[in-house]
Amino acid sequence: MNMITLLENYLQKTIEPSLFKHCQNTFSLDQLDVYLTQQQEIMHQFESYSLSESCLSVIKEITLRYNEDIYSIQYLYDKFESFVSKTADPNQILDMLIKSAVELIGQEAPKWEFIASNLLALKLDQQIKENTRQYQIQDLYSKIQKLTQLGLYGEYLLAHYTQEEIKLLEGYLKPERTHLLTYSGLELLIKRYLIADHQHRVLENVQEMFMIIAMHIGMNEKDRLPFIKDFYDLLSQLKITMATPTLANARKPLHQLSSCFIDTVPDSLTGIYKSIDNFAQISKYGGGMGMYFGKVRAIGSDIRGFSGCAGGVIRWLKLVNDTAVAVDQLGVRQGAAAVYLDAWHKDLPEFLQIRTNNGDDRLKAHDIFPAVCYPDLFWKMAKEDLNQTWYLMCPHEILMEKGYALEDYYGSEWEKRYFDCIHDPKLSKREILLKDLVRLILKSAVETGTPFTFNRDIVNHFNPNGHQGIIYCSNLCTEIAQNMSETQYYEKETLIVNGEEIIVEKSKPGDFVVCNLASLSLGHLNIQDDHELQKTIHTTIRALDNVIDLNFYPIPNASITNQKYRAIGLGVSGYHHLLAKQKIAFESEAHLTFSDQLFEKINYYTIEASFLLAKEKGAYSLFKGSDWDNGNYFLKRHYTTEKWKLLQKQIHQYGLRNGYLLAIAPTSSTSIISGTTAAVDPVMKRFFLEEKKGSMIARVAPDLTMENFWYYKAAHLIDQEWVIRSAGIRQRHIDQSQSVNLYITNEFTLRKLLNLYISAFENGVKTIYYVRSQSLEVEECDSCSA
């Protein structure tokens, strides 16, 4: 008897190629014969519970996939028998099996995560078969037809694809790839991403979800079937993840695919309320928001020449806060906004206390996230002498008195004008010792994890599109850095249409930032294979560029800006996962060297992909005069090798498709889906328990083994200077920014934390996200999760 026959007899069906290959690599024929005989004896114990044939088949497959002693199904049976009743129905029995596998997960036996996932996948398949039977769905084409009729899929799918094309793509589906998901990843997909009907019954499976997302993103491609297959392969093999809004909304009628939006709030009643309305519209469709309030006049400033009338920034923040609570993100969670203010704004001390537990409750806004925009001068002075005086001023007063907006400048020009302002006796100033202001900042960071940090001079110095504007702030998760400008509003105009008066509101749109995100799952990619890395990046950049044209935009300003710059944000997840697999310690020079080489390579392939798209489809409209065009982008980053010089020359000739390219988002939920570590963060713990539905679920660092155990050093135990230094190394290769978290312990002093901020500035780190103390739980950004 040969191996195939032996396996077929055991499984009583034709086995999938990947499982057969696994067995070939694991057993000799004699070993397999002995092993299967042992497993048959254990299987008889399960059969006494009248398990369904499909359930028994999955258990048999598990015995072959996970054949180490520690994953013996005897353990599964013993756990299962301890709390199952002989009178349980088939559904309850399957639930008990899943629960048994979940309870066996541990850092010594992490693969029980996948065994639990295999069983959960069986349950999902059974539910989908029952749910689709009620709708008389037989294949993928009839499923798309029915879900389109139900208003769950967009009509554009059937408008773009023939039945024959859908049949071909259905034949390309790889159901076995669902086994790549951990239990937590599959559970999250079921809960939040797979399409369900109006009675919350799931109708699409995981591989159909990946394929139909690929169909949506690729539907305007000329040679689309090969692209769709390539893109499906990347998604289904968990080599890349798209941002949460893309995963959730691609294929839907209202396909809002973008993660991040940033608005510049004007200093006018109309402008402020319009910005809050913009936030409400963005939140309604699941987006997160960054709002720059640095132009809004401070408390006590004048209104229409009457001094002392302005209520300041804080009053408006309370409206933003209430909007975040009132307009939730598709019913999943409340809206989320980060509000940015300059380090020299007169309302800064009150702003720094909107989330803390001390101070006036009337000035609190606990549901939004404060962030501060720092000039280089602030950190230079903080390092030099904290007993110096820092001056806080009102942007409106400066504009009225000096004729310029201080926030419109950066670097040496900003410093010159700042000193011009503080020496002007006609301007009112709020003096504060630098050490008192720093204490407020650090106290808030330790207590609340915020304010986020935006180093505006560094950001604008490296802005490849500085010829077209300035970057005032970042987004909700601090990884986006793109040109911004406020919308200008004009008098309303009354028109006569069909004999009726119609009021038209006219405005000149500013640069309303929107970004479309995806992440490379570094832990699942063979980064030593340059061809694989290049092809993965090229396919993903093409997909992100397509998102720009396929997107549903909640407000028109976002569409206009996105078409101008065609900005995208390719990031990464699984950074610590990759380091551990490579056996590289986080706190080592080898880490920094490895990261420098890897991210230069990622950047090169990303720029190359955008250049090739420009050659095919045309450059973004504002390319001429940019740093991409004149070569300053490459000079600032010291890209001087012949390979870089050739690419620079080609870009100058043909242009670049996308004005902004790289941004590393937090990937909080999408990293769970792909079973890897979040973004560029070190793991919080190698092993921890997470409470879900009243029970505890073990979570284990990905691919944890005895060989890489010590390379998974917990985040709070890592010297944070290595976090800063590695961020600085990566930043050279990232045209936008990264969500970088700092991890502090109870032993941290305020001076030690301040030194990390100063180090970040000195290492060229553009932004800092949360400060995570061991005793503080912070709310992750799901909107920007990529």
What does this molecule look like?
With 786 residues, the chain is α/β, with parallel strands linked by helices. Among the domains are: 104 residues, no CATH class; 110 residues, no CATH class; 264 residues, Anaerobic Ribonucleotide-triphosphate Reductase Large Chain. The protein has 32 helices and 19 strands. Strands 1, 2, 3, 4, 5, 8, 13, 14 and 18 form a nine-stranded mixed β-sheet that branches. Strands 6-7 form a two-stranded antiparallel sheet. Strands 9-12 form a two-stranded antiparallel ribbon. Helix 16 links the parallel strand 3 and strand 4. The chain is globular. The two termini are 49 Å apart.
Mean of residue pLDDT values: 93
Largest β sheet strand count, sense and barrel closure: 9 strands, mixed
Cα end-to-end separation: 49 Å
Strand content: 5-15%
List the helices and strands and how they pair.
Elements: H1 3-11, H2 17-26, H3 29-47, H4 53-65, H5 73-83, H6 90-103, H7 112-133, H8 140-149, H9 156-160, H10 163-171, H11 183-192, H12 206-217, H13 224-236, E1 240-242, H14 244-249, E2 260-264, H15 269-284, E3 288-292, H16 313-326, E4 337-342, H17 348-351, E5 369-374, H18 376-384, E6 389-392, H19 395-402, H20 411-422, E7 430-433, H21 434-448, E8 452-455, H22 456-461, E9 488-489, E10 493-497, E11 500-504, E12 507-508, E13 513-521, H23 530-550, H24 556-565, E14 568-573, H25 575-581, H26 589-617, H27 627-630, H28 632-636, H29 642-654, H30 670-673, E15 687-692, E16 695-700, H31 720-731, E17 742-744, H32 750-762, E18 767-768, E19 771-773
Parallel strand pairs: 2-3, 3-4, 4-5, 5-8, 13-14, 17-19
Antiparallel strand pairs: 1-13, 2-13, 6-7, 8-18, 9-12, 10-11, 15-16
